[in-house]
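Handoff note, outgoing to incoming analyst
You'll be picking up this chain. Sequence as last confirmed:
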Amino acid sequence: MDLLAAFWAYEQALAANDLTGLDHWFLDAPDTLRAEGDTVLVGHTAIADFRRGRGGAPARVVERVHVVRPAVGVGVVTAETRRQDGARGLQTQVWQRTDAGWRIAAAHVSAVAVPVTVPDDRPDPAVWRVAGPLVASTGQGPLAQVRTAVKDLFAVAEQRVGAGNPAWLAEARTEPEHADAVRQLLDAGAELTGIAQTDELAFGLAGTNRHYGTPANPAAPGRITGGSSSGPAAAVARGRADLGLATDTAGSIRVPASYCGLYGWRPTHGATPNGGLLALAPSFDTAGLLARDPVLLRTAAEALLTRGDTTGPITACMVDEELVSLAEPEVRASFEAACRALTLRTALPLTRTRTGAAEHLGEWFAAFRTVQAAEAWEQHGAWIARHPGALAPDVAARFENGRRVSAAERAQAERVLSDGRKALDAVLLPGTALLLPATSGPAPLADAPPDEVEAVRAATLRLTCLASLAGLPAAVAPLLRVRSLPVGLCALGARGTDRALLDFITDSRKPAHA
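Most recent structure output, in case you need it:
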C-alpha cells in the first residue's frame, strides 16, 4: 500500500472510530508521539488509551493533502480539514515505512475555532440596491423559506432594473413581471430577499462600483468580493441571503465564488432561462447561482434547468498542467493538495493530460474578448453615447473597445471561437470533469492600485474564458486556501452535464465516512 492509500485508510478508521484500525496505523513503539493543544502523548499504549477514552473524533472533511518525502522511507503528510461547525484544523503526520508497511511515527493535531461575529442587520448600499423581503416565500416547494438575493439585472415585478448605474436606474421603467429565472425560483418556494448590486452594466470582474461602493468580503476582510455578481456574493457570504441569483458572462459567478469562499454554478449556455434579463453579451450570458451549501445549490439549480442531462455521472477527472500554470504559485500548490484530497474522497481516477487548450488560449482569449466587447457595444452603445461620463473610466474603456471592432474582425473572431468550441468538445467528454483553479489568485486588496486589479482580472479571465467561449457548464467549490484566503476549485463539464457536475461538486465535500 502506498503512502496516500495508507493515510486515507487511517482517515477512514478515524471517521468510523475504528479503534483496532487506528492502533494498526500508529507505529507500535515506545517513542511514538501524538500532540494536540498542550498535551503530548508518548508511546503506542498511551495513544491507544487516549483514543479509547475519547469516544471518537468530530466528523470532518479533508479538503487538502500536502505530501513531503524528506528521506527514503519517510513521508510527511499535512491534511487541512473542516469540521461540520465550520472549524478548520490541521493534522501533520510523520509516516515511516516498516517491514509491515507505512505507519505513523509522530502526529500533531490543531484546530481553529469559528470566530464569533455580531451580525449587522443594517442594509449595506454597496450590497443591496433594494433591501426587502420583496416577495415572501409561499412556504411550499424545495426552496421554501430560502432567502434569495437577485442581481440587479433581472426584472423584478414592480421594481426597476438599475444595472449598477444611477443614470440607467433613473431612466428605467417599472417592470410589469418577474424575469423567468426569478419566477421559477419563487415558484419553487424561495423568498425574494432583495435586489443586489452589480458592476456597471455587468462589465467587470472586481465588484468595485464607483457609485455604490465596494462590498465587504467577510471571507477575506479588506479584499474585494469579485464581480460582476458582487452584491449577491456579498449577501450570501455574509449570511444575509442563502442563495444568489446571478449571471456569468466571463466569470461573474465563478470569480466572486472563488474570492468569497462560496459554491457557484455557471450553467451550460442556454440551459437556464434568460427572459427578463438585461443582456451584456448574449452569446456568453447565462443565469446561474451562488450558495454557501452545495446541496442547496444543486436543489436550486433543478428549479432553473430547462432540460435534462442525457449522460451519467462524473466518473473521471482531468488536470491540464499547462492551464494550471496560469495561476499563481501558491494557488498551484493548494490546487494540487485539493486534487489529492478530492481523489481520495471520491475514489475517482485523476488523469494528467494535455488538452491542447493552452496552446490556443492566447488566440481564443483574444477572440472571446473581441466578440464579448462587440456584443456589449451592440447592446448598450446607443445609451452610452447619449450619456457621456456616466460610466467609470475602466468600464467605459471596455465598451469603447467594442465600438472599435470592425465587422471583419468580429467575423474572424467568431470563426476562432467556433473552432475553440469544437476543440474543447472533443477533449471534454461526458462523464469527465476538467479541474482547474477558479481564479489566478485570491481576492486582491480593496485598495489595490487599478493597474494591479486589471492585471489580476486579465490573468483570471484566461482561466474563466474556456467555459464562457465554449458555453460549457462550470461549478466552483471553496476547496483551495492561500494563507488564510479562499480560492475556488473549478470543475468544467461537457455540454449539458450540469446535474452530473453539481452532483460531483456536492459529493466532493463529503467526509471520509459519508
